[in-house]
Amino acid sequence: MEARADSHFLAGKKIIVAGAGISGLAFAAALDKQWDDRFARPEVTIYDREKSDEAAQREGYSLSLNGFDKDGGLVALRDLGLLDRIVEHAILGLETQPSMKIWTSSWEENIAIKLRAYQGLPSASLRIARKDLRKILIDAATEHRAIRWETSCVGAERLEGERIRVQLSAGDGSGTWSEECDLLIAADGASSKIRAALRSKDTLQFAGAIQLGGCARFPGGIPAPVDKSWGLVITGEGVCCFFSPVDAERVVWAVSWRTGEPRDLDKTRPEEQFRSLMAEALERGAAIREPFRTIVEATEPGTELLIPARDKAPFRHGEGRVPPGVVFIGDSNHAVSPFAGNGANLGLKDGWDLARELCRGASLAGAVKAYDDRSVPRAVATIKSSHWRITMGHATGAAYWSFWVFMRVGNFMSWLFGRFM
């Protein structure tokens, strides 16, 4: 798919985006933002398996948006023109003091992560409720189109003449059909059906840890110190626990441990399972002092989570069975576990960078290669760092004490450079 000097290879073409998650929405908004209006705009259709954007409003957790280097999600949001709206909804990270903390089991603060914001951004890292981020992206991505909800893209094949046939399925089970397009953006998440159809052996791998948690509500205010900070308690007994506010009344928590076998929620017995999981959390986190027990006991039924850490290495397009005209972005290409703390940033940057290369490129093949050159290295680095976090966060014995020496030196260096730079 080449462009003439007086045209663009995507001018007037049809693009299907599979998935209205962070990466798919970021791509659609970024294509609108960067498209050269000398050429006819592509027709972009977004499909998502959810019933409507109302489902997004039920997402009860927050995520971190980074702004300390060029690959941060805040950079993508600035370029999209959405940064002001993001800042309006920030939960933490805009204050002058650092927010990300690492505590001992007795809540002794051993490090407060302080990084310098990149190129004048308002923060090096802030937290926002996922529902708020997604609502902002939905508004941006639907300026020129509507999302077709309750429709899944379940497969794709290349036709003669370089077009792609996409198989679609109604969420209510009413039927299946197909549509043709010139470019398919697979943004349908870690359990991508398109990836399963085209790269059946490219599956998620268990990273050896499980998170058990939920969302606790405190109408009178979240207990200190997690009311104004987010971070990890590392016990040295093979267990750690993540805490982060979601809003003024709610805090999400997740205690974790290493294991050789993954576990998932049993949705057939929700009430019994909730009680069992909360009891297990208290037992596994027994070394963590208050307000741990208070937070666990304030967890709202229905918010419980049991997440086996799974991830998947990225791939370059042109490898395996991916036909030209199909591009995987976000978790559909390089799924990461919650221990990465970087999934939203990867998705935002993937969406922006792919749109950027498509808008400025002379051919589809060249644009996708340039995108891979940007996307793959940062995904590889993120997965490596998440595995390191799993190892060190659950360390015991000598490894644990070595980790704290490293942390204390890091804390001193953070203070030193923060004061003198």
From TrEMBL:
- Single GO molecular function: FAD binding
Q: Which UniProt keywords apply?
A: FAD, Flavoprotein, Monooxygenase, Oxidoreductase
Source organism = Thyridium curvatum
Q: Which Pfam families match?
A: FAD_binding_3 (PF01494)
Task: Outline the extent of the FAD-binding domain.
Answer: 16-381
Query: Is Transmembrane helix one of the keywords UniProt gives this record?
Result: no
Q: Which domain of life is it from?
A: Eukaryota
Q: What is this protein called?
A: FAD-binding domain-containing protein
